[in-house]
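Supplementary Methods, section 5.1.

A reviewer requested that the exact input to the structure prediction be made available. We therefore reproduce it here, unchanged from the version used in the analyses.
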Amino acid sequence: STWTEQISPIATELYSVSAVDDNVAWACGASGKVVRTTNKGTTWTNAGGNLPTTALLYNIFAWDANIALATASPTAGNYIYKTSNGGTNWTQVYLQTGGFGNALWMTDANTAYQVGDPVGGNWTFLKSTNGGVNWATWATVPTTQAGWNNALMIVGNNVWMGTNANYLMYSSNLGANWSQQTTTFTNQYSVWFNSATNGLAAYNALNMTTNGGTNWTALTSPVAANTAGIAGTGSEWWVATQNTTVHYSSNNGAAWSTAYTAPDGVFYHITKARTGNTLSGVRNNGRISR
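The structure derived from this sequence is encoded token-by-token as follows.
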């Protein structure tokens, strides 16, 4: 893969990136910052609109060039914001006192999900059926654990969510029922599935599954520090660590090499376009790698 550094209009933390296709991607971060590209990253523009500077935006999910959801978790609680006009204007569509909103996902233009840390002894599992305008409890599942921002993956009816324990939360029926999938390490910082069966989970080690998460096995891992994100397709995998390195495997994790070393900063997240071949990574200094 060929990597390029792209010009970002900001120099502060970017915590999350969501790539719609090879042309359109959004990223969010500290101080209510959102940036967006619609031309393969040739230019990134500010798309934070009227978001408050107090909003610590830890996760974003973009449906297209106009519609995006972002979650913010300052000390006051779990906020969800929505834009329908490319980031010119944002509307606060949800506020939950306490907890921490970890990740958002949309399965179509109307159906959206949020997972987050527990409130009242239960996971924060929220669902919207009108594009994020209104939110209701998706499922009631007790826990004493917590999750991680960006650590959510939905493939078909399968849902995986990273936790700070030695397991992933899993549902095979879009949240109607939940179970735990045990891994070999604690803290599932990142999770990604190339299909409904073939997945990778990571913290400062890597685990792979070939049966949808029923069993997880340790890989000989290139990761010596916390991971920032995973992306993949087919038998190929890219793992970014919370430094300047992106690792690559072409054979389902049997062997790894260095795919890219960023010139500065620390990776906070990496993702693959839902349609297309583009990988996007964001860092703590506002920099973006493609």
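Residues 51 and 106 are 21 Å apart (CA to CA). These observations are discussed further in the main text.
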